[in-house]
Design brief:
The chain is mainly alpha-helical. The protein is built from eleven helices and no strands. Helix 3 packs antiparallel against helix 8. The longest helix is centred in the N-terminal third of the chain and has 70 residues. InterPro entries: Chloroplast_duf. This is F-box protein.
């Protein structure tokens, strides 16, 4: 096909040349001979090109997201938010269950305290009565034996009661129920406001686990020590072991207050003074009261079993008025008097719920410690946008302390006037007006 086209082109070219030469002869025009050059297209060997370039390169087609791809991305984001929502609802269900569980167990342990106290006092008074009657009756062996057995039983029950402190156990469960209710309300608020994030889910999980650790349910192995060597405030919130250090955006300035998020240098100084007052006065005072309550509880917890044990020993060796040198009569008096004193001591300890008072003081100290740490964590955050809103945070602090905003400002401004050069602050006002 290519050969035919080339030959036809040559024929047409030659015929045109001959015609033009005849015309020039007719008019007497002589021109130089012209050489015709034929340029034929080069035909490549298909087999050769195939062997030299075996790969066939195609042009790249630009790819753009279509409506179907956008739907897939939106669907994946929706699935992720749905998963976080389901996790928050699962945490909410477990928190709601824990509220009821701690409430029921708290009521049960409060009943323990009342029933055990009534039983021990009844046993002790019955033993003292038998010990007194045994002096008047001639065959007094049965009464003395019964009185001794009752005293020993009361001693064993008192040892167990003073070890577990039912009133303190009930107070622990009441605090746990209250704190879980607070966490439940917080989670419900986050679910109502908008879609929770993975950070919210992790934070809620950490709070639940911290509460479980602070207020355990079992008695054996995991019970909180009722007579610790050192008194510390209760801790029921997750404590960060490492504080993240962040750089400020402007050199030489701690914060950028162009977008202050409700914060100002004056508000920071005010919150810093409130935190110092809480540490100096409220936390220190409740820790001091906790130590006093612990000492009193230790004394009463030791005195009760000692008195009932002494009464049991005295009743065992007691006798009538005619015994030699009056030893039996004196032992009887000791047995009756020790039993009566043991009833008084048990009533003061468990009826007065000294263990509950100790736990209440520890919880109050923990409440102020948590407030102090929340203030410090906000102040240490160099990026004001990542803090809680300053005005909202100030309102929360004022409400927790039982003060108005003006009273909170007056408290921070007047705190420096009460501190003497030695650092004591006896005449300084407490931060809280609630308790």
């Amino acid at each position: 096909m290519v050969t035919i086209q080339a030959s036809s082109a040559v024929y047409m070219k030659v015929s045109n040349i001959s015609c033009s030469s005849q015309t020039r002869r007719r008019f007497g025009v002589s021109l130089a001979p012209t050489r015709a050059i034929l340029n034929l297209p080069k035909v490549q060997n298909q087999a050769k090109s195939t062997t030299t370039n075996p790969l066939l390169s195609l042009p790249k087609i630009p790819y753009s997201l279509g409506f179907q791809d956008m739907d897939i991305i939106k669907r994946s984001n929706l699935d992720s938010s749905t998963v976080q929502m389901e996790k928050m609802y699962a945490i909410l269900e477990s928190v709601t269950d824990r509220v009821e569980m701690h409430k029921n167990i708290g009521e049960q342990r409060d009943n323990w305290n009342n029933l055990l106290l009534s039983s021990v006092n009844s046993i002790t008074l019955a033993a003292a009565t038998m010990a007194g009657i045994s002096v008047l009756s001639s065959p007094s062996i049965a009464l003395k034996l019964s009185s001794t057995i009752l005293y020993l039983a009361a001693t064993g029950i008192l040892v167990i009661m003073n070890k577990i402190q039912p009133s303190q156990l009930a107070e622990e469960q009441r605090n746990a129920s209250r704190l879980f209710k607070q966490l439940q309300t917080e989670i419900q608020t986050k679910l109502t406001i908008g879609n929770p994030t993975a950070l919210d889910v992790n934070e809620a999980m950490e709070k639940v686990l911290a509460l479980d650790k602070a207020y355990p349910l079992p008695l054996l192995g995991a019970m909180i020590e009722k007579f610790p060597e050192t008194v510390e405030s209760a801790v029921w919130w997750p404590r960060k072991t490492e504080q993240k250090k962040q750089k400020s955006q402007e050199v030489g300035m701690r914060n950028d207050y162009n977008n202050n998020n409700g914060w100002s240098p004056k508000l920071e100084e005010e919150m810093r003074e409130v935190s110092k007052i809480i540490e100096r006065k409220d936390v220190a005072d409740y820790l001091r009261l906790s130590e006093k309550a612990l000492k009193l509880n230790k004394m009463l917890a030791i005195s009760g079993p000692v008195l009932t044990g002494l009464a049991a020993a005295a009743t065992a060796v007691s006798g009538g008025f005619s015994s030699t040198h009056g030893v039996g009569a004196a032992a009887t008096v000791v047995g009756v008097a020790a039993g009566a004193l043991a009833s008084v001591v048990n009533t003061l300890e468990h009826g007065g719920q000294v263990g509950m008072v100790f736990e209440m003081y520890r919880s109050n100290a923990g409440f102020f410690r948590l407030m102090e740490e929340s203030i410090e964590s906000n102040l240490k955050e160099t990026d004001v946008e990542r803090r809680e809103n300053g005005e909202v945070f100030q309102t929360k602090v004022a409400l927790k302390l039982g003060r108005s905003l003006s009273e909170l400002k007056n408290l921070s401004s007047s705190s420096s006037r009460y501190i003497n050069p030695h650092g004591s602050s006896d005449s300084e006002e407490f931060a809280s007006k609630l308790f």
